[in-house]
Amino acid sequence: MSDLRDLYQEIILDHSKKPRNHREIAGTSRHAVGHNPLCGDRVMVYLAVEGGVVKDASFLGSGCAISTASASLMTESLKGKKADEARSLAHNFLDLVRGLKLSDAEVAGLGKLSSLSGVCAYPVRVKCATLPWHTMQKALDAGGPSEDESPVTTE
Questions:
Q1: Beta carbons of 91 and 136 less than 8 angstroms apart
Q2: In whole angstroms, how far apart are CA 128 and each of 55, 63, 75?
Q3: What percent of the chain shows pLDDT beyond 70?
Q4: Residue 110 in contact with residue 89, Cβ under 8 Å?
Q5: How far apart are CA 47 and CA 42, in angstroms?
């Protein structure tokens, strides 16, 4: 178990120090802002959706290691997914970090995202891990750029 925990910590540290897809997508079809007022984490998620498929995903913002790693892992996992697959992935990830029981197949479907499973032991950190995902869902559901840019907040 310790080896698995070490691997998970390596993945989180790698993605927090060298986040993937940390950029704005020019001409993006959808975006949303997320903010956690309790800790100051802020994220803008960009999605390029064509024909109901997430062709590209990225984020900008600032936050703790958990928030940054979660956003980085999320953007990697979304590319090539249909919108309903992205929603299902988000649902399973959110359940995982909240400590809810998932089937073996659901956990396997999360891949590297399961490295954040230990967050459920730290309720304050759950909000850090889930902020990018709630923001992504807002961007996906908006069907276009957020007109008012009212942030998704987690409290």
A1: no
A2: 25, 8, 16
A3: 87
A4: yes
A5: 17
Residue pair 27/95 in contact by the 8 Å Cβ criterion: no
Q: What is the pLDDT of residue 38?
A: 86
Q: What is the pLDDT of residues 37-54, one digit of tens each?
A: 988 999 999 999 999 999
Q: Residue 1 contacts by C-beta under 8 Å, 6 or more apart in sequence? A: none
pLDDT band at 27 (very low <50, low <70, confident <90, very high): confident
Q: Across the strands, what pairs with 58?
A: 46
Q: Where does residue 120 rank: exposed (0-12), middle (13-18), buried (19+ CB within 10 A)? A: middle
- Domains of the chain (ranges; CATH) run 2-153 (3.90.1010.10)
Rounded CA separation 100/102 (Å): 6
